[in-house]
Write a structure and sequence with these properties.
The protein is an alpha+beta fold. It folds into two domains: 121 residues, Cysteine proteinases (Cathepsin B, Chain A, Alpha-Beta Complex), CATH 3.90.70; 147 residues, no CATH class. Helices cover 46% and strands 17% of the residues. It contains eleven helices and eleven strands. Strands 1, 3, 4, 5, 6, 7 and 8 form a seven-stranded antiparallel beta sheet that branches. Strand 5 and strand 6 form a beta hairpin. The chain is globular, with a radius of gyration of 20 Å. The model has no long low-confidence stretch (mean pLDDT 95). This is BtrH N-terminal domain-containing protein.
Length: 331
């Protein structure tokens, strides 16, 4: 048997996870609207992580993926199930077989699957005859092929997949409120990959980025990739908050602040130049870039303060009630 979802097309424009989810949900008619709306409602636009050496892995190292992605999809009212781990575990072959079956089942229902390639991509077909999955990475129109027997195997040693199911309707204002709370959490959590502290998140990510640029011995490709992702995300936030104007006065004020931040992005982008066919940070403009990022941090910090004022006016049962299972339970 074989399945190939022709209408599912992934395009790299945002974070690879956001791009993957958007392609899957829109093709399955589980989400309608522009990509920046999905990025905002899920809170993915607000995730900002930076490695001390500005390694490119920074962009997807925003925490334990299950803990980050499930609240994001929950806020859309969509059922989601995921599994992940490390291939070094002795039980991996059994999890691998279960994952293969789960992915095929989702595709049989006409819904694609998020898959860590790396980075995140979309499984949009399979063929039992050849025992292969067809995968899109969003960078090429050509599908990649992964054997069932090689599912989850990659140079990072991590494996991850995520499937989606039915949807319930959540009030727009409730989704927006939760997205602001997700933004606050990301901003206030300096390290999301503990015990490692070489990757900073939220407000501290600005410090790591500026320090990395100032030291000079940063990863060239990683610096540009981090900046590109950052500039895209902040543009998404501005557009997302722009659509949400009129609900709360503080939200309108936050929109104005992100508007000022987004207005600086062309100047940030001018600090990146082409060198031998590769985009690199212009070392002669590093001080200018750091100054722009410092101003952006202050603007974003003020915007998050407005989010806090909004959040404080409403009960937050997700965080004030101990869940049956989750991060608050004893290990």
């Amino acid at each position: 048997m074989s399945v190939f979802l022709q209408d599912l097309v992934m395009k790299r424009e945002s974070k690879s996870y956001t791009d993957s989810v958007y392609a899957i949900l829109t093709a399955a008619n589980l989400f309608q609207g522009p990509k920046y709306l999905l990025s905002g409602l899920t809170g993915m636009a607000f995730k900002f992580s930076v490695h001390q050496q500005l390694l490119p892995m920074s962009v997807s190292a925003y925490g334990q993926w299950g803990n980050e992605h499930k609240p994001a999809i929950d806020n859309l009212g969509i059922l989601t199930i995921f599994d992940a781990g490390r291939v070094r575990h002795h039980t991996f072959p059994y999890y691998q077989q279960e994952a293969v079956n789960a992915v095929k089942s989702s595709l049989d229902c006409g819904i694609g699957v998020v898959y860590w390639i790396p980075e995140f991509g979309v499984i949009h077909g399979y063929d039992d005859g050849d025992r292969v999955f067809y995968i899109q990475d969003g960078c090429s129109e050509e599908s990649q092929i992964v054997l069932y027997d090689n599912f989850g195997l990659n140079f990072t040693t991590f494996w991850y997949y995520q499937v989606f199911g039915d949807k319930v309707d959540i009030a727009r204002q409730d989704m927006i409120l939760e997205s602001l709370r997700l933004a606050i959490l990301d901003w206030e959590t300096p390290f999301r990959t503990l015990p490692n502290t070489d990757i900073a998140s939220g407000k501290l990510a600005y410090v790591y980025l500026c320090q990395g640029l100032k030291q000079g011995s940063f990863n060239t490709h990683g610096a540009v990739y981090i900046l590109d992702s950052y500039m895209t995300a902040r543009t998404e936030i501005r557009d997302y908050l722009g659509d949400a104007q009129g609900i709360w006065t503080e939200l309108d004020e936050a929109y104005q602040l992100y508007g000022l931040l987004a207005a600086m992005i062309p100047r940030m982008n001018d600090c990146i130049r082409a060198h031998r066919g590769e985009r690199q940070v212009d070392l002669s403009r590093v001080d200018e870039l750091i100054e722009l990022l410092t101003q952006a941090e202050l603007l974003e910090d003020q915007a998050i303060s407005h989010f806090r004022h909004i959040s404080a006016r409403y009960p937050d049962l997700k965080r004030t009630t101990i869940p049956r299972w989750g991060s608050h339970t004893p290990r």
